[in-house]
Amino acid sequence: MNKNELKKIISRLENGGIDVVSALSEIASAKNVSDTGFARIDHSRYMRCGFPEFVFGEGKTPEQIIRIVSEIKKKSHPVLVTRLAPEKAAKVLKKFSGAEYDKLAKTFLIRTKIKKPLSGKVLVITAGTSDLGVALEAKYTAELCGCRTELIADAGVAGIHRLFAESKRLKEASVIIAVAGMEGALPSVIGGLVSCPVIAVPTSVGYGASLGGFSAMFAMLNSCANGITVVNIDNGFGAGCAAARILNTCKLPKQ
Question: What φ, ψ does residue 253 adopt, rounded to 5°?
Answer without folding.
Answer: -65, 150
